[in-house]
Amino acid sequence: MSVKTNPEGSAALTQKAANRLPGHPSQRINRAELVEFEFNGKKYPAFSGDTIASALWAAGVRVLGRSFKYHRPRGPFAFTSADTNALVRVDDEPNARASATLVKPGMVVKPQNTWPSLDADIMSLTGLGSRFMPVGFYYKTFIRPKALWPTYEKVLRNAAGLGEVNTDVPDTYYDKKYEFAEVLVIGGGPAGLSAALSAAKAGARTLLLEENPFLGGHLAYERQTVETESGPVVAYELAEQLAQQAAGQPNLQIELNTMAFGIYDHNWVGAVKDETRLLKIRAKTIVVANGALERPLIFDNSDLPGVLLGSAAQRLIHLYGVQPGKRAVVLSGNDDGLQVALDLLGAGVKLAAVAELRGEVNSPQAIKLQQAGIEIKTNYVVVGAKGSKEVSGAMLVPLDGNGQPQTAGAEYVSCDLLVTSVGWTAALGLLSQAKAKTAYDEARAELLPTQLPAKIHVAGRVNGTHSVLAELLEGQVAGLNAAAEAGFGGGAAAKLSKQVAGLKVAEPVRNSAWVYVPGGKKSFISFDEDVSVKDLKDAVAEGYNSMELLKRYSTLSMGPSQGKYENANTMALCAEANDLPVGEAGLTTSRPPFSSVPLGTLAGRVMEPVKYTPMHSWHVARGARLMNAGLWKRLIIMATRRRKCWGRATAWA
Amino acid sequence: MILLTCPNCGERNVAEFRFGGEYKSRPQNPEDGAADVAWAEYLHFKANKLGIQKEWWYHRAGCGTWFLAERHTKTHVVEKTYLWEPN
Questions:
Q1: Cβ contacts of A265 on chain B, cutoff 8 Å
Q2: How far apart are CA B30 and CA A467, in angstroms?
Q3: Rounded to two decimals, what is the model's pTM?
Q4: Which residues pair with A233 in a beta bridge?
Q5: How far apart are alpha carbons A500 and A477 in whole angstroms?
Q6: How far is the C-alpha of A539 from the C-alpha of A543, rounded, in Å?
Q7: DSSP A400
C-alpha cells in the first residue's frame, strides 16, 4: 500500500507530534514515510513502523478505551503484544491490540466499550456501584423474579462483551502453510537467535519464529552496553549484528510477524503469521526462547493511563522515538529500574523522584544516576497514583525497618509519568502446554521450568536467564543440543553447559518481593476483567481458595491477555490469602492458544470451486442466465427481451 | 497432533487415520449361557486404562490398512505400530 508524503497538505500530517524525540539508529520507525490515520474521529500523524499505541502516545493521546467492568479510562501500559489494556476497533476488526498493530495509511481506529464518548462514558458510573457488584456478583444476582430473566439477559448482553462485529465485511484473504523443521526455535531474542544460529551451523534445518517485525527481542529496545564473549557491545547494535548473521546463515529460515500459539503432541506447533496465515509446523525438536514479561506492581490506581512498566518506557523511547512523559516518578525494585531512569534522563524527561524499594544500591546504573545529580530514595515505595483520566501525581511513602510503609511520611510528587520496574515473569505458557514441569524458585521469586520433556529445550529469559552473555551461551547450548537430538552434531560441550550454569547462579535477583502495596481502594490485579485485590480476598474468604476455583469465580486470567500480566501476582496473593508460601498456591492449567488467533486463520481460504460445461462460453456470449447446480454453472434461461408468459410479465433481460 | 507410523506408508499425521478401538480378543462360546453377557461386554465395555494400550488404527486417507499400535494413553508416546499377525 503506498504511503504519501502529504500530497494534499493534510493538517494531521503537518502537525508535529508533541512527544517525538530526534531520530536514532535503534528506532524502528521510518521518518521518511508519513502515514495518516484516524482515532476517535480525529486525524493523527504517524511514521511507517509506528504502532497505533506509539503514534497516539506521540500525539499526547494516552486514553484509548474503557475497562470492561467499571469503564475506567485505560491506555497501553506495556507496549507489547500481550498488552490488552488498549484494545481498539481497527476499520472493521474489533478487539485489535493497539500495541501490536502497525499503523497503515487511512486506518480508522475507534475506542471500544465506551458510550457515549471516550471522554465521558456514562457506564463509568458503575464504579460508584462497585459495592453492589462484588466478585462473582452475577452468580448471586439477577436470579429472582424468574419472569424477568429475558430482561436481565437483554441488559446483560448489552453491558457485557467487548467489541462489535460487522457482519457485512467482505471476505479477507486467509490461508495456511505447512512447515517442517528439524529444529524449531520460538523467539528471536538473544537466546533464540543464538540457538537458531548454533542449530543451523550444526547442519539442522532450522526455523525461527519471531512475533515482532524485527529480530532482537529485548536487545532491540535497550541502549546500554552489554557483555558478550567478544567484548562489550551496545544492546541494540548486538541485536542488529545477530539479525544480520541470521539473515546470512544457510539452513536457517526466519519468519517475522509470526506468533506461535500452541505446542501440541509430538512437537506439532501452530503459529499465526501476519495475522492472516496459519502455519502448521512439525518439528523434530523445539527450543523455546519466548522470553519474559515485566511484572506490574499493584497499588491504588495503578491502572491509570500514564503508569507504565519500565520496559514500556524503553520501548517508547528506543523503538519508536517517543518521549513517554515530561516529568516522571520511577519506582525501581531492581537494577533494570535504575537503567530505565537513566534512559528517561537521556530522553529529556525530568526525573521528579526515583523511589527504590531496596535498601541499598551500588550498581553501575546507581552510580551514573548519582553522578547526574539524581537522588535515589532507597527504602521508598509508591502507595498510589493520583489523577482523573491520566496520572498527575504519585504518593511516595518511606519504608520502616520492617519494610512496612510508614504512611506518616507520605509525600505527593506531581508527575505525568509513573514507571515501575519490580520484576519479570517467564512466559511459560508454551512450555506448560508442552508438558514441562515448573516450580517456584524461592530465591529468585519466580516460576521457572524444572523438568523438560524429550525434544524440548529452553533458553533465555523464559528460563530465568537475564544477563546477555548467559542468554547467548544458554541459547548456544540449547541449539546444539536440539540439533544433536534431531541427529545433527554432537551437542553442547559439557564445559559450555557448566559455564552457563555458573553465570546463572551469579545473576542478581530481579524480582522484588513486593507484589501489592496495601492502602488502596482501587488496586487492580487484572486490568482485563477489573478484578481487584479486594475481590480476590473476598473470593478466598467465600471458600474459592484454590487457584483453579479462584480463577473461575473471580475471572482472573480469563480476559483477553489470559493472565499474562496477572498470573504471577495472583499466585502470590492467593498464597498469601491462604497463609501458604507462594510456591504452594498452585497453578491453573495452561491451554492453547497462548496468544490470540484470528478466527479467519482457522477458517482458511474461502474456496468456492466452480465447474463449467463445454457450452458455458457459448451460453454466456448469448446472454444466458446461469444457476448453480451443485458445483456446475448451468443455464437456467436464455432470454434477450421481455416476454409475456402466461399472462404475467417476466422481467428477464 | 500425534504421529503414527503406518506399517505400509511410514510416519503420518494422526488426521490420516481413524481410531479402531481397543484390541480385544473375541470371546469363545461358553456353554453355560454366559455367552450373551460375554458378547455384550466384548462389544460395549472398554478397559480404558491409563498406560500402554494396544489398539487398532485404520489408515483411511492412505493405504486403508488396519494395524495395531501400542500407545500410552496419557503421554501419547507411541511405542510401536505393526500389522496383526496370527499366532
A1: 1-2, 76
A2: 72
A3: 0.90
A4: A226
A5: 8
A6: 7
A7: -
pLDDT tens for each residue of A35-83: 999 999 999 999 999 999 999 999 999 999 998 888 899 999 999 999 9
Q: How far apart are CA A341 and CA A332, in angstroms?
A: 9
β-pair partners for A45: A36
Using an 8 Å CB-CB cutoff, list residues of chain B that contact chain A. Answer: 1-3, 13, 75-76
B3 vs A contacts (CB less than 8 Å): 266, 282
What residues in B contact A279, CB-CB < 8 Å? none
* Spatial CA neighbour of A208 closest among A141, A147, A254: A254
List, for chain A, all residue ranges whose pLDDT scores fall below the cut of 50: 1-8, 653
Q: Grid coordinates standing for A501?
A: 550454569
Listed in sequence order, the DSSP H helices in A132-291 are 149-159, 190-201, 235-247
Cα Rg of chain B (Å, integer): 15
Would you list which residues of chain A are within 8 Å, Cβ to Cβ, of chain B? 264-266, 268, 282, 435
Bridge partners, residue A292, by sequence: A426
What value of ipTM does the predicted structure carry?
Answer: 0.89
Task: Report d(CA A305, CA A302) in Å as an integer.
Answer: 9
Provide the Cα torsion A78, A516, A306, A532; round to 10°. 90
Cβ pair B1:A435 closer than 8 A: no
Q: pLDDT tens digits for A182-209?
A: 999 999 999 999 999 999 999 999 999 9
